[in-house]
Amino acid sequence: MPAGYAADGRKEGAGGMKAEQKSRGVEGFLLDLQAAIQDSRFYGPKHALTEAAAVRVRASLHEAMAGRTEIVIGVIGGELAFGNKPLYDLTRHMSSLIAALEEHKVEKLTFMGEVPLADIRSFIELLTCRSGEMTTAAGELGSITISGIGLEASPSGSVLSAGTVEETYREGPRLLGDIGRALHDGLPVNTRAANTFIQKVMKGFLGNKAPFLIATSLKKHDEYSFVHSINVAVLSLAQGEALGLPKSALADLGLAGFLHDSGKIALAADILRKKGKLSESEYEKVSQHPLDGAKLLLQTPDLSPLVPTVSFEHHLRYDGRGYPRKVFGTELCLASMIVSISDVYDALRSRRPYRGGLAPELAFKEMIKEGGGLFHPSLLGVFFRAIGIYPPGSLVFLDDGSVGIVIAPNPADIRRPVVEIWYAPSGETLRVPQVVNLTEKKPGRNEYLHMIVRSVPPEAGHKIPARYRID
To answer: What is the CATH T-level fold of the domain 164-387, as seen in this structure?
Structure first.
């Protein structure tokens, strides 16, 4: 560091600002950087919204750089640091940025002098792509030094085959099968394996949510399969991330979602999948499964107490009804209310013995009716802002007759996600799919370019594009 400068790059004696005031501009810059990376993921690196986000990043970096020759940002154990000052409060809101940095094994970032917009654009694109798919080398950014970056090869082709999405839906059912057998036989649950699995899912999800949300829509299952439990974990992570929960809380929430139905393991499959009305004794067995699951999980060592709590409460309602009867208090655990929303939504979308899964817009209508009754109304709003009415993976029919697949939600307008169009209005398959943001309007007019008319079931003649299929 040149003489006359402090460790954070600011000239010594430049002012008597407090430490928290010094870092305020840096925090604004990092928030803008995270937003730009998310825009680039959703809309692509060349989109006008991504370009506008890059301009904002450069402006906030220029403001944060005032009086400094450089800004150094570190990533230490999942925490952000400015120079040698940990940014504990900010880290809680920076899960996407931290996950992107960790994916590329970035340990330190140094921004030097007047960083040109071209370097900002390239840096955003670099952090947006998957590790091993970079088009910009770290050394090409003259004003930004990236330390500890690792370029690992990753499989190409299917969006869902890369990394942890495919692993999640391959390893998860196997792990749940092992856990089920252990609980049924009164043996200890392998909590280490369960925690390791959820940590892997959480890291992948925070790095890139879209493939996981697409998988929850497209992986075929019924309400009583192990896939349902994985989907509940992923959808619960989506809510927790939207609420800004810290990583430790997200991990417990994901595990609680994954194991929420442990009490059903002892129930016979013919009861769970019965097409007709349950007998009184069968209904009694089913209604006892939250309590049975909680008892089993309470006997499991090294397990967060949140997990049996959620197992017990996930069929209790926000309005105080539901089952089993709660003996102490009336308030529900936040995690229980989150998992309840995920559980019911995925159950509505799943096949039942007496019907197919509901279309996403119909599931939305059913859920909204229960705001304030079955569900906490504010949390219900958070849920649909996180996934949208038409979640990623939904095939949708647009007003011009074209058909596409939703690839990203839009928290600002849950009816207008980002769609990748694969079928022209004529029904012909496009050679090159077109990505459209449904918030875009006609030039000079207050009218949207496109709108969704309805969802389209895959069996209706429009196949899910191969790159999004998950077996």
So the answer is: Hypothetical protein af1432 (1.10.3210)
